[in-house]
Amino acid sequence: MPDDKITPELFEHLVELAALELGPEEGEYIRAQLNNQLKAIEELVRIPLDESTPPAAHGVAYTAATSAPPRPDVHNPFPNPEAILKGAPKTEDGHFVVPDILYEDL
């Protein structure tokens, strides 16, 4: 479409940067969906808002009467990480070792 923000050329560049392999139909479908999302965002931006509205404001007030209190942020590690690491093909210093991803062309 002529008014698309993401042109076929820009999309091809993004696909190359992301190292994706897409067929022509897949690529055109995804490009169309991304353009539709951008159009929806542009429509939302056009909605007039009161300048005094804080960015995170929403329609339902968060109160102790209507919502449970936030749970504390507590570190709760797995008690036996060695049991998980036993199933890994390769470990090093208590961590999984994964092979490098080799790229021929970027």
Number of strands: 2
The largest beta-sheet arranges its strands as 1-2
User: Main sheet?
Assistant: 2 strands, antiparallel
The percent range for helix content is 25-40%
Distance between the termini: 29 Å
Q: How would you describe the shape?
A: flat
What is the averaged pLDDT score?
A: 88
What series of H and E elements makes up the topology?
HHHEE
Radius of gyration equals 24 Å
Strand content: under 5%
Given the helix and strand composition, which structural class is it?
Answer: mainly alpha
Tally of DSSP helical segments: 3
Low-confidence stretches: none
How would you describe this protein?
The protein is built from 3 helices and 2 strands. The protein has 106 residues and is mostly helical. It has a domain at 8-45. Strands 1-2 form a two-stranded antiparallel ribbon. Strand 1 (91-92) and strand 2 form a beta hairpin. The longest helix is centred in the first third of the chain and has 22 residues, at 24-45. The two termini are 29 Å apart. The mean pLDDT is 88.
Name a few traits of the molecule:
flat; 106 residues; single chain; 3 helices; two-stranded antiparallel ribbon; mainly alpha
Secondary-structure map:
Elements lengths: L7 H10 L6 H22 L35 H5 L5 E2 L2 E2 L10
Antiparallel strand pairs: 1-2
